[in-house]
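Now for a typical sample entry:
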Amino acid sequence: MGNYASINGLEMYYETQGSGEPLIMLHGGLGGIAEFGNLPSMLATNRQVITAEMQGHGHTADIDRPLSFEQMADDVAGLMDHLGLERADIYGFSLGGGVALQTAIRYPERVRKLGLVSTPYSRAGWYPEAATAMSSMNAEVAQMMMTTPIYAAYAEVAPRPDDWPVLVTKVSQLLGRDYDWSTDVAAIEAPVLYIVGDADSVRLDHAVELFKLLGGGQADGGVGGLPKSRLAVLPATTHIDMIFRIEQLAALIAPFLDAPVP
C-alpha cells in the first residue's frame, strides 16, 4: 500500500512492508520503486522496509527546485521524521546511492548502516563515456527515450507524465555538476557495504578507493581484524545489469544488515 508524506514542499511517495529494524531503499536516476523488483520483500522478512521515490521520480511529482543530492538527503531525513524513525539503515542504487551517502554525511547520527550499489563518491568515479552521456541528456533525448521500458515504467505511475522531459533534464544537470565527497566519506562512521559490477559504469579502481576511504583495504584482515565496511564485486555485471541481480544483492545485503554494529 502506497502513502504520501508532505516533506519540504514535496508530496513524497513511499511504501512499507515488514517489521523490525527500518531500512530505507532509494532508487536510481529516472527510476522508481519498480526497479527493485522483489528485493524489498526478500529483505522484509525480519525488518521494516521503506521504499521511497525521490523528487520527480515515480509517483512523486516534481516541484519548482533543481535536483541536488543534498536536498534529496534532506527529504530522506524528513521522511524519517514523518515516520518517527530516529535511525535507519539506508540502501541506495546509483543516484539513490549518492543520496544515501549525503544522508550519512549530513545526518550521521541517523544512519545505522549504509548499503551502496554502483555509486561514486565523486563525478570522476564514472567512466568518461558514462559521465558524458549522463550530462548530455535534454528534452530531445527525453523524446527519444519514450520508446524505452524506463519511460513506460515512469508514465505508468507518474502524476504528470508530461513532466518526463523536465525530469530527464534535471537529472542530467545534477549528474553534470562536479563534486568530490572524499573528505566527508572518510569521516563516515556507519558501516558500509559497497557493491559494484566488474563491468559497471563506475570505475572499479574508484570503488576500491571508496573502500579505502571507509577504512578497508589497509591491512591483512587475518592479522589486524576485519574492517567495519565491506566491498563486493559482482562478476559479468554492468550498471544496468545490477538491478536484475536480485538474489545476489539479497544474499549480500541481508547478512550485512543483520550483523551487529561494530
Q: What stands out?
A: The two ends are 35 Å apart (CA to CA).
